[in-house]
Amino acid sequence: MSSPDIVKVLSYLVQESENTSLERYTAAALESSEVYTQLQLLKYMLTVRSPDPPLPTEINQDINRILFHRSHNKLFTSRHSIKEKLRFADLSPKLSIWKGDITTISDVTAIVNAANSALLGCFQPSHRCIDNIIHAAAGPDLRRACYNLVEQRDFTQEPVGSAQITPGFNLPAKMVIHTVGPSLLPGSEPNQEEISQLAACYTSSLAKLEEQEEDGNDKSIVFCCISTGLFSFPNDIASNIAIESVRNYFSEHPHSSISEVIFNVFTETNLKLYRQNFAEYQEREILVPIEQPIFETHHPIIEVSKKLIQDTDYLIVSAGAGLSASVGLDYSSNEVFDKHYRNFKKYGPTRLYETIGHQWPSKLVEWSFWFHHYETVSRWPASESYQKLVRMLNCATNSFVITSNADGFFIKNGYDPKKVYSIQGNYYWIQCPIKCTQDSFRPMDAELQKVKPYIDLSTNLLMDSSHIPRCENCGHIMTMCLRGGWKFNDTPMETEKKKYKELLNKIVRENQKAVLLEFGVGLNTPSVLRWPNEELASENENNFTLIRVGNGPSSTVPIEYIEKENFIVIDADASEVIDLLVS
Ligand SMILES: [Zn+2]
Ligand SMILES: [Zn+2]
Question: Where in the sequence is the signal peptide annotated (predicted)?
């Protein structure tokens, strides 16, 4: 089967929309777009699209294949891995609180969506409501299924407090229950009617699930915090109603086929409230703990990756800015800059990214910055994530690291410097800006030791310009040995560069297996690591498997590869994935 054709899908949707502002999305423009841009447009088009007429079968299938992968690239949480379960003293269903993304909970019969009364999902692309999040993950079949339900009825609005049920489509949950909660004016207190309506949302959702055949006598349901957030129901009252109405339901239905209820919270506020409520109920002995075996969290995508890493001949870690960001050295963070670089804020930059290629007022300030930056990075605390990663590398039969980070964190955390290729240069070296000779570079550390007595500790500035490093051959003021606007001298990285090239050739020549384990390689300079990794895996399917770990925009591969076995995407934070891979 050929891969899903996102350009065809998008071209169809754009044309069908007759929206003139989308005319710039010609097939050629779509073809050359980054996959994340394509996916964002797909999400937009599906959010605003009416479920009628239905999508052509072929287009719909391709969309489902794409969304299935997007959904399954995330780390699922099985309900069996949720710890601390309780039950009402006189009733048997299990209860728990779980904080996370409701579209990632697995092994459940149904999740509950806080719908609006039109029941067709949210049509506002920028709205971050749960209705939108659930529909976006489930795919267009969900809206179509809701539409079919609406069509069957003779009223146009779903009454507040009632519930409908549909399949879950691309979600890990088997079904979705859509309930319409009361909507309040922001800041107002709920009246008696609104309180009853919210309680009815819970009981009618449970009743709706009860009618289903799915999962027999072992049905499970995950409630979101209905009516809170954009519907303005006060969180504290809402969480009381949630627990009380569930309790009432089971008191009235002692032989219920529902065996487990999970209260899903998304905000810290709601997590605290539910926990407080649970604690109070426990004190009053209305809720009692359940002794149960603890199941380890089982993420299918992690299990597959672990096996690949175990069985591979070569483990090659490819690391980008996202990996160092996940251990705190975040180039896009204002806080990091405020905390460690406050003396340099007056020169313009507010984040480390902005220091790249920055026009400092003088060479003296520029070099003061570099000395300070070098010191800050070399004093950065050892990181648990890097150390775990280094341990994983050292356990592999053969290993190597290629990184676009200049910070030397792999080496700092114990990995063999001879096996690290810093493709963009690193902070260990400074070079002549005109590369007057091949060997006009020298170590930064020795330089810093020399000038240290002449740096003002309160301003981080060099006291006078005679201490600015100059080229010993031609006298030019030196620069950092980083790929940039000047003549980058990569001689200090030459040996590792050659080693890496030879390694790749050897893997193909000897028909061996390699895992390219990629962390935090974003879209800023995709030609450095991202595209070469994709190319390696697509051109040598039998030799290279790419495991791409990253958040948001970086967690994508071109659609033509999503169904290939040697392309794995894990849409999660690097340090979380490292923890899971080494556990
Ligand atoms: Zn919305
Ligand atoms: Zn020179």
Answer: none
